[in-house]
Amino acid sequence: MFQIMPLKAKRFRSILSFSIIFTMLMTMVICATPKIVKAAGSPLLSLRKPVLASSTEGSNSTDKAVDSNINSRWASVWQMDPQWIYVDLGSTANINRVYLSWESAYAKSFQIQTSNDAATWTSIYSTTSGTGGINDLTVSGTGRYVRVYCTQRALSDYGYSLYEFQVYGDYTTPQPPAPVNVALNKPTNASTWEVPSWSTDPDIVSAKKVNDGDITSRWSSESWDPQWVSIDLGSIHTIGTIVLSWESAYGKSYDIQVSDDNNNWKTVYRQLYGQGGVDTIKIKASGRYVRMYGFARGTAFGYSLYEFEVYDFVNGDPTPVVHIPDMPVAKVVNVGAGSYKTNDITCYTPIYPEYKTANLKTPIPSGGWWQSILIKRLSDGIVPLPFRTQYTDQGLSVMNPGSGFVSTDGKTISTAGAPDFYLMTSNIDPMKMSAKVDGYGDYSVRSVLSDDDTFKMKTTMVKGSPYLYNEFTDASSPFITLNATTRFFDDKNNTILATDGAIVTADHIGVEVTNVDCNNTTKVRAYGIFAPSGTVFKKTGSKLTLQLGNGDNYLSIATLPSNANLNYYYQHAYAFVTDTKATFKCDDATGLVTTTYNSTTQLKRAGFSSDTLLALLPNQWKSITSATSLTSYTYPYIRGIMKVHEGNSFFMQDKFTGIIPQFGIPSDSSTYNKADVISYLNNTNSMLENNYMWDDPYWEGKNLQPLSQSILIADQLGETAIRDKSLSILKKILTNWLTYSGGYPNDYPYYLYYSPEWGSMMGDGGDHGMAKWMSDHHYVWGYFIYASAILASYDKDYLNNYGGMVEELIKDVGNPSRNDSMYPYIRAFDPYEGVSWAGGYGDSYDGNNQEATSEALFAYAGEYLWGVLTNNAQYRDVGMWVYTVETKSILDYWFNYDQDSLPANYTHGVVGQVWGSKNVYGTYFSTDPNCIYGIGWLPVAPYMTYFGLNSAAAKRTYDSFVKDKGGAENGWYHVIWPFEALSDPKATIAKWDPSKIAADDANGQKEWPNTYWFIHAMDAFGTRTSDIWSSNWTTYQAFVKNGNYTVNIWNPTSITQYVVFRDTTGNIVGTVTVPSMKTVVANPKNGIQPPAANGQVAAPTFSIASGTYSSAQLVEISSQTSGATIRYTTDGTEPTASSQKYTGAINVSQNMIIKAKAFKELMNDSTSTSANYVISIKDKVSIPTITPTTGTYTTSQTVAISDTTSGSTIRYTTDGSTPTSSNGTVYSAPFTVSSTTTVKAISYKSGMTDSDISTSTITINTTPTTTNLALNKTATTYSILGGNTASAAFDGNINTRWESDYKDPQWISVDLGSSYNVTGVKLNWETAAGKDYKIQVSSDNTSWNDAYTKTGGTGGIENITFQTASTGRYVRMYGTARTTGYGYSLWEFEVYGTAVNSNKISTPVITPVTGTYGTNQTVTITDSTSDSTIRYTTDGSAPSATNGTIYTGAFTISTSTTVKAIAYKSGMTDSDIASSIITINTQPTSLKIQAESYTAMSGIGTEACNDIDGGQNVGWIDTGDWMDYTINVPNTGTYNLNYRVNGWNTDAQIQLKLGNTILATTGVNTNNSWTTVSSSPVPLNAGTQTIRVYSSGGGFNLNWFELTK
Asked: Phi and psi at residue 1307, in whole multiples of 5°?
């Protein structure tokens, strides 16, 4: 009944098949895992406490080990020992019990250890015979930190994994009372909940499960939006924390709302980009009722919560600052006749790129090697070869993985192994830190590691660079944690730092690391550490600490080829790379594609080289044209040998050998039969004309490609009727996808959705992972782009009306612009490795991966063809460049054509998957060699004949396939036969049997014409060759057979082309005439010379005329002759055909004469033109410096103005006017300002350009402030002792005090409730005072500014006035040194200042609040500020005091509307904007249910539907099979019932059931044709209910059924 379709299996590799299998396995594990029952005794101390681990695997993060959820787990990386995980209990405790619940990957040998400092550990339990499962251990020990230290794995191929790590005991000092879940077992309600078929308990996933305290039970809603679940707390609470523990069906976008009456709800928190797991939400809000209101699901299922916990706000805790983002307003964007949807939060969207600094703006490239930093708190593996790095809980892990090893089963070349060391900084709290992307280049990324919004460690990683470039905010903070046996050495390889505590002062040292990889092989690797002069290196245990010298903050680390190279790498270590660019140019006249790599450097130390080093991959050094700059240094790597290049730039050149969309007629093949081809073409049309729409754009591509190839075949055969029918089908498919027609149910999922969060276009619905996982964009859209190029070459209506939409897809894949506001530059292409990665984020230990190499090339071939067709050189050239570079990498790294990329003991002929740091013989979806080889050869079209340019290697590859297969192919014939034909077409033709292709794939017949055409073309034309090439046309391919040359040429233009061919010496050997819109097969060596030159090329013109200019000029050169090549010189010589090719604007920054000449094949050269530029740039006077700078001051200020330009004059103003060289007071001496003044200054000097204007606004606030702003305000602190809480320092009582723990640092802060200009503080110390401390001010309780610094304090009462007022809401004392051996202790902490923005109008209240309503709604808007005016909008725009309708009274809305309102009043600050999204949902009177949309079923399957509306139907229906459907009936009454069925059994019959009641019985035998069958009417009650379609007689297929009233 169900037949495997090999090609279809491919794309379910990472999204469907794996996720389904994983879900099934996890379900079995969950069901088999016992619920944790906590015994009486000491309390659980570890619940949701901070956790660190040696490593994490995937999404199995450390927090999941202490969340009391046995359905989640922590897991370490695979195949590495030792591994550990520890929990910070927050304070010292006596530990008496540790509870471990292991997943199947358990530890055979492990210890339980305790520590007081997370550095020195004491073992309190040890075993070497662990058996996994539940380990409930009685222990005895004391410490703040508890660690599980694992040294031997039970499963050698995996790591360690814990469902739960629970620590019990008693704290040694009093602790604040444990928070109480005030929602536990309180009354609940929900919008819906499922009644799943797998249980007879109707409450199995009801609302009451959401707060029952049982983490194994859950609430689960129906699968539509919106949904909500609410809890009645019984009385009004001030809520401080909400914890949502999501099942895998999580809420992506939701509100937390509170209410006093269960009717009027207020949103207090909004999440737009949730990722599931456990969401801990900090708020301060009051209400009796609290609910989660979900408006966008994260999966296709409903919302499912294990637990919904609510905790009261704790007085003294800081009040969280909660920003409620506006709800995105969905819109449809029209592009020509097409359109796409955007800004709809309910659509599938990528993981939000959360971890980025403000420097990173959208659009953001995906599909690279560093993007995992963006989506994870730290990162997965980052592979800036020759390094492999990863941000971990211990810092940045570093190793040079080398060439790796072949696994015991021979299927993997792995480099797995423990890091050699970690780079970290001591001023980061690892419990709070995250990594963020701060910037990137074409082959580099700059990232920061910090525990706040500042950067504390910044690292630039450059692909190919043997250096990691680092900067620190604290010169004394860097340290390296050594993870293996280490020896330090100097330039002469003498051992240094040999003993613990040893110190050396130097600017560089070597590090020799002896480590063991996962193959248990010892590896010795060398590194260099390069620092400022005078740096102090100290070895302390397993750490190397650094005090960077001279107050500098930089450090570079290099991986060395050997110890002997330390000094050479030292010479280049201070050329820090700040940016990288890979640029290209395509030269039609030579057929060469040139790629230039340029690294911009910043020299950190004078006297050292400003040139960097780069290790080149084989795909680069084999084509490098600057070979003399290659050194003798090399690195073994997973791709082969990397060779070191010295210098900041190099370039490589490769030959472009042509792309055509289809071959000409293979009439020279003796077995070619035109009648067979026509029959095959008709088969393709018949198969697809009524079954052409797939609900996944990738699988739709499997229709687009054979249709496109068939069109070109039919056109050449003169079969216009067949061609036009194929064109009609192709156009229907493409225009459907390229037009948004209203979404579900009319258009879903056949439309495109643009995600602004990254800047990407995807197919909504079944998207093959290209949405959430951002994967495979090139694979998917390549089919659409290629097919569009073919369709548009025949259909100018499609080109004109849908070409804009096609170019949206092109820009999503291969955008030629670096400045596009919507899409990144060439999304997934890695120009350094020459690979288009498949994964969106590279989120694995080994970085990113790629398996379907030819599908990537197919996308760029499509972009190239579109560029040729539309005469768009940018698209054409990007396609040419990427195609040319990537084909080299594919031949080297996947197919080992040169036999130097793979180790000798790797016995397979191909790599199925290439990862950043490993190779795999396999695919995501199959271990069959048909698939492992074939995935690199599909789809079949002439672009993939590049494999045949080396026919011997192609033959060797096919022979290796047969060896790996153990015989000839037994599937994927339409892929494997064409590849075999590249080297042996006769053998392939002898196998031709179209029935095999049909049997291989249920839709295989559509592949018949293209497969037949391809293999016969190879027989007719011979093997590919680059000996013959065209100097004026690129859409051709050359072949040779028995010494005779043939070319296939495609001309999609409207004019005849004369294509000139040359041999390897560059001499013309012939010319072929190609009529418009034709594919021609010809002999290129026909001896025909090009026709006489037809006119003269138009002379170049310059965008800027000759002349004298006072600044640099960007000069563009153009010729009116289309397609002309411009050559130019800047040295005064006349340009020739070999001079510099003009590719873009020339930056003229000095005196220059440019001469230019234009050339075009078959035309006379233009005359030479020239332009003479004189650049006279005056030196500019430096900008003045005004002291003091802008700020608020409490006393009169003396103003001084200085300038560094000798002999300059300064003028200034104090009245707000702009100073000039003739306006303002000439500055002669400092002057005093006693009131608020804006000082502006300019410097000027004869013969120089005036300086820029500097400004300082000096606010003088001399009014003494006597009000203590901190009195009785909310306070918090790092620690307390003896019950002396933080609030005691702000209670106005000098007999109460705050007291901290006895260690540094400590802090105490106060929330002033709103922003103030803080001018000073008063500290009343107890004897235990602060010696060294800072007074800091913050606006967000996260980023702190130093307002005052104290050193050498002696306590007592300190009245502190700030030199400059500091603005903020929070004030704290941050102490770093104490006057006594005790802690810090303050009787009182007073704060003084003036209020900021204290007259702001209150925010309007809109009723009704955001929600879905079944009837028209009357909207009212109120504001509590007397005499304020309210303006509102209903079009999604932001209202202001001048924009929007003035509110005068209630108004009614009848359609879904976003109402926004603002209040304003003269003399006051405008209010914040209020917003309410009011959805009006009037229920339909017709319910049409697609058969495949069941919520549960038994015995049936789904298949592609050949009914008129396509899609899917339910099939394989036998007697007793059934499907359940959840429907929402709008009104009680009798409904007409129709079924759309194809029945062939005389007894075929359907019963419609509601529970045990049969509503109707209907015969559905339709004599094997699709027919609408009417049943007797059925009675239904209003509301949501589940009905069952029951097969009381099998033998039919069901497409849909409909209930109408």
From this structure: -150, 155
**Both 1414 and 1515 in a single domain?**
no
Residue 231 lies in a domain: yes
Which residues lie closer than 8 Å to 1182 by C-beta, 6 or more apart? 1203, 1204, 1205, 1208, 1243, 1251
Q: What is the pTM of this model?
A: 0.71
Tell me: do 302 and 269 sit in the same domain.
yes
Are 1007 and 988 members of one domain? Answer: yes
For residue 321, give the nearest of 1271, 1272, 1274, 1268 by alpha carbon.
1274
Neighbours of 91 (CB within 10 A): 14
Same domain for 1500 and 1524: yes
Q: Which CA distances in Å does 1292 have to 483, 1270, 1289, 1324?
A: 53, 9, 7, 11
The two structure tokens encoding residue 1104: 């800027």
Q: Where are the alpha helices (DSSP H) in 1413-1494?
A: none
Q: Give residue 370's Cα distance to chain centre.
A: 9
What residues pair up with 1226 in beta bridges, in sequence order?
Answer: 1211
- 1463/1501 same-domain check: no
1552 and 1525 in one domain?
Answer: yes
Supply the pLDDT for residue 1515. 86
Report how far residue 1048's alpha carbon sits from residue 663's, in angstroms, rounded to the nearest whole number: 6
Answer yes or no: is 810 within a domain: no
Give me the domain span that covers residue 1239: 1198-1260
User: Whole-angstrom Cα distance, residue 456 to residue 396?
Assistant: 13
* Same domain membership, residue 1126 and residue 1018: no
Question: φ and ψ at 125, to 5 degrees?
Answer: -160, 145
Is residue 369 assigned to a domain?
no
CATH, residue 1326? 2.60.120.260
Cβ distance 472 to 478 under 8 Å?
yes
Task: Tell me which amino acid residue 1061 is.
Answer: F
H or E segment and range at residue 877: helix 873-889
Give how far Cα 409 sits from Cα of 157, 405, 965, 967, Å.
12, 11, 16, 20
Q: Give the confidence band of 1587 by pLDDT, cuts at 50, 70, 90.
A: very high
User: Looking at residue 1147, which CATH number applies to its domain?
Assistant: 2.60.40
Domain assignment present for 364: no
Sign of CA dihedral 352, 356, 362, 368: negative
Q: What is the pLDDT of residue 78?
A: 85
List C-alpha distances in Å: 470 to 531, 558, 604, 706. 10, 11, 11, 52
Domain count, the chain: 10
The pLDDT tens digits of the residues spanning 624-675 come to 876 567 999 999 999 999 999 999 999 999 999 999 999 999 999 999 999 9
Q: In degrees to the nearest 10, what's the CA dihedral of 779, 780, 783, 788?
A: -130
Please check whether residues 211 and 274 belong to one and the same domain.
yes
Chain mean pLDDT for the chain: 90
Residues 6+ apart with CB under 8 A from 1188: 1197, 1199, 1256, 1258, 1364
C-alpha 1145/C-alpha 1513 separation (Å) is 58
